Amino acid sequence: MEKTWEPGLSSGEHRPSVEQAEHQALNIALGFDEGGLSVTGAGVQPLGGSRMLSNEEMVSSLQKLGLNLYESKAYLALLTKKQASAKDVGQIARIPQSRTYDVLESLTKKGYALTIPTSPKAYAPVPPQTVLHSSYEARKEEAQSMVIKVQQSAERRLSDIQEAYTSLMQELPGMTSQDLNVPESIWVVEGQEQIENAMISLIQQAKLEHVRITRPLDFANKPFFDPFYIIGMENMKIVDDALKRHVKMRWLSLAREIPSIIGLEVGDEPERRYLERDEDIPEKFVMVDGHSVLLNLREPLSQAFGSQALLMHSKVVTSIFREHFEAMWERAKPLADILPPILEQAEEASSKLREIGFKKTEVALYTTLLKTGANTLNVLLEEVKGKRIVAQEAQEAIERLTRAGLVHRISTFRLIAGQNPIEVLASIKKGKLGSQKR
Fold first, then answer.
1. Phi, psi (rounded to 5 degrees) for 110
2. What is the pLDDT of residue 209?
């Protein structure tokens, strides 16, 4: 059917469908109208500012703020109609008619809808600017309450352990309670920067021993930042200072941290051992001098390591973590056993990259990153100075390597890291890195 021009529309524009107009109204109601809107065949798009949310994304966001699936759909339906009966809401939101009244009553109790005393009874939405803020504050308070409960639970557990320890020290012959004067405490540390600061502080305070269990950064998941990782010249100086104080440092991780993060030129100290599989390291913690432990907590839903940690100053608790560490340390392989095959893989990956046509500069930069581990562009340029690679040429090569998946940027530290040669060889074998000859 031929499209006709209508007054008020420029040539080539056509009046949006009812469905598109309703979707536009929803985004405007929820605050996605910065910079104006444009209705196209692909839906409602912003002329500037934020990207438009789809209906599915809006439903998902409302569920995160405490509504269930039907409540989220009903609220969005009310926003499009401003006022509607239960029957209309059910039809628009595609909610079973038998559930519509219950859903709307629940929305009303949660403060998302108002009842209008008409016949039949109608409902109107509470403006998003009002209800979303209060819902956000309530959910945030709920999350903070969970953190407090974790801390309280840990403190009760620590109290029980200390009580058992105290009674045994008092009752068993040949024991004394004088060591109980050491203050014991437990703290919740929130935020990646705060966790990193706590870890650095523990290294600075260490007098005898510092042990660490962690996992390398996973380039498949973002963000790359891991506060339990010690990266960068400034932080490594703190490690060097501890070694000069004769602090015994033992670090346990997964073998894949070499060479992408640590580099092939890893030193003898701190002493390192490695396990192979992710499941071999179910937790991450730092332990200092037999009296303090920093334990990285997991997110309750995803079970991924998150941005919360417990800092525990307790000899009793630390002794438990020590037993666990020593058992894992015995199972792990020393650096001398791990490094030779990785060196061979790195050489093979560099050779294969040359074979499939990567430029000399690109291969040189990738090989240097494997040698040094994650580093800044300035340090990388200093390392390749003898190869007569200028800054502009290096930056362009890094961009090409990044697009090819051979280099990753750790933006938090402004670092660049090379892809593990095992992954590079697998990609070449599968044909994902085809001929680069140009």
1. -85, 0
2. 95
> Residue 4: which region, alpha, beta or left (left: phi > 0; alpha: psi -120 to 50)?
beta
| Higher local confidence (pLDDT), 116 or 289 | 289
pLDDT per residue as tens digits for the range 339-377: 999 999 999 999 999 999 999 999 999 999 999 888 888
Q: Say whether pLDDT at 121 is over 80.
A: yes
pTM for the structure as a whole:
0.55
Which residue segments constitute the domains of the chain, with CATH numbers given?
A: 18-130 (1.10.10.10), 182-331 (3.30.870.10), 338-429 (1.10.10.10)
Most confident of 108-112, 118-122, 334-338: 334-338
Cα–Cα distance list, 192 to 78, 169, 263, 412 (Å): 40, 39, 24, 11
What angle (nearest 5°) sits at the alpha carbon of residue 229, between those of residues 225 and 232?
A: 85
